[in-house]
């Protein structure tokens, strides 16, 4: 882990502009006081034109240029919830760290509470934050539309709303483990282990753990247990239902279905993105404050 350097800061906000206007004004004042150059995409400029009009040092980049020029940035500052943070992780990959101001319901990946925005953002800009490498789950299978898709939180195989339940089996490194009727199955990274996996009874994984967790959702069996796989393990999930298709949900977005008899493979890609967290304000503290 290393400290965050800040010079040119990309701003990424919640999809609903009204959610972030006031917090953005406060954040811009802190950034200006520390001499940071603010960078926004064209879509962000359109959302916050009036707020940004008063910012002396800011640059607008076309939307399709942001990923191309991410190497010119020092940090990405998020104003929103975990969904916005996940968008930022996908945009920046592991090139620059992401630091988040929590404006969402949970904000498990955030490091700056709204009530202490000025103080904690100043700490981030003063290089007090630590950068944590995050892993991602990559998925492959017969459906070419899946190729290249990655999940920074989780991949969920879920029964469709019109079906009572589905049947899913899985193996790790070609070793068959379970084949159960259930509502679904979730594979989660350490960063995503606090989401659907946790609500399904799976364990919380330490952020630096080199592995991922596999949990059934509402299995019709008393012997089903979550399994923590290592970062080199290959997971294969198969839809063993006779007729029912299964939804493939990646980081909360439905991206396709798994037909009866079809399978999908998942692998962990280490250091796929970077998350900036203040000391003593990491995921364990977020877990305690939000869930305990």
General description of the model:
The protein is 22% helix and 37% strand. β4, α5 (82-92) and β5 (98-102) form a beta-alpha-beta unit. The two termini are 27 Å apart. Strands 7-6-17-14-9-10 form a 6-stranded antiparallel β-sheet, covered by helices on one side. A 6-stranded antiparallel β-sheet has the order 13-12-11-8-15-16, with no helix packed on it. It has 2 domains: 8-128, Probable inorganic polyphosphate/atp-NAD kinase, domain 1 (Rossmann fold); 136-270, Tumour Suppressor Smad4 (Sandwich), CATH 2.60.200.30. The chain is of the alpha+beta class and 292 residues long. The chain has 8 helices and 17 strands.
Write a brief caption for the model.
With 292 residues, the chain is an alpha+beta fold. The chain has 8 helices and 17 strands.
Pick out its properties.
single chain; six-stranded antiparallel sheet; 22% helix; Rossmann fold; Tumour Suppressor Smad4; alpha+beta; 292 residues
Strand order of the largest sheet: 7-6-17-14-9-10
CATH class of the largest domain: Mainly Beta
| Number of helices, counting only DSSP H or I runs of 4 residues or more | 8
Which shape, going by the Cα principal axes?
Answer: elongated
Layout of strands and helices, then pairs:
Layout: E1 8-13, H1 17-33, E2 37-41, H2 42-47, H3 49-52, E3 58-61, H4 63-66, E4 75-80, H5 82-92, E5 98-102, H6 117-125, E6 130-141, E7 150-151, E8 154-159, E9 166-172, E10 175-182, E11 184-188, H7 196-199, E12 211-217, E13 227-230, E14 235-239, E15 246-250, E16 253-258, E17 263-277, H8 283-291
Parallel strand pairs: 1-2, 1-4, 2-3, 4-5
Antiparallel strand pairs: 6-7, 6-17, 8-11, 8-15, 9-10, 9-14, 11-12, 12-13, 14-17, 15-16
């Amino acid at each position: 882990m290393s400290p965050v350097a800040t010079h040119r800061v990309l701003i990424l906000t919640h999809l609903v502009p009204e959610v972030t206007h006031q917090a953005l004004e406060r954040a811009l004042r802190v950034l200006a006081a520390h001499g940071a150059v603010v960078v926004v995409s064209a879509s962000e400029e359109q959302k916050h034109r009036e707020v940004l009009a008063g910012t002396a040092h800011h640059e607008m980049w076309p939307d399709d240029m942001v990923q191309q020029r991410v190497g010119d940035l020092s940090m990405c500052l998020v104003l929103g919830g975990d969904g916005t943070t996940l968008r930022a992780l996908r945009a920046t990959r592991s090139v620059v760290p992401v630091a988040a101001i929590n404006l969402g319901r949970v904000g498990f990946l955030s490091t700056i509470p709204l009530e202490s925005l000025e103080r904690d953002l100043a700490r981030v800009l003063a290089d007090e934050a630590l950068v944590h490498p995050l892993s991602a789950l990559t998925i492959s299978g017969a459906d070419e539309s899946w190729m290249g898709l990655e999940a920074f939180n989780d991949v969920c195989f879920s029964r469709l709303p019109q079906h009572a339940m589905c049947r899913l089996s899985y193996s790790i490194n070609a070793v068959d483990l379970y084949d159960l009727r259930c509502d679904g199955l979730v594979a989660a990274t350490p960063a995503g282990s606090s989401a659907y996996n946790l609500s399904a009874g799976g364990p919380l994984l330490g952020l630096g753990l080199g592995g991922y967790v596999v949990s059934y959702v509402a299995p019709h069996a008393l012997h089903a247990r979550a399994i923590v796989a290592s970062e080199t393990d290959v997971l294969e999930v198969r839809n063993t239902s006779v007729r029912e298709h299964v939804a493939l949900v990646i980081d909360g977005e439905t991206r396709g279905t798994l037909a009866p008899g079809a399978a999908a493979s998942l692998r962990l890609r280490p250091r796929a993105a970077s998350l900036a967290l203040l000391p003593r304000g990491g995921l364990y503290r977020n877990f305690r404050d939000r869930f305990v």
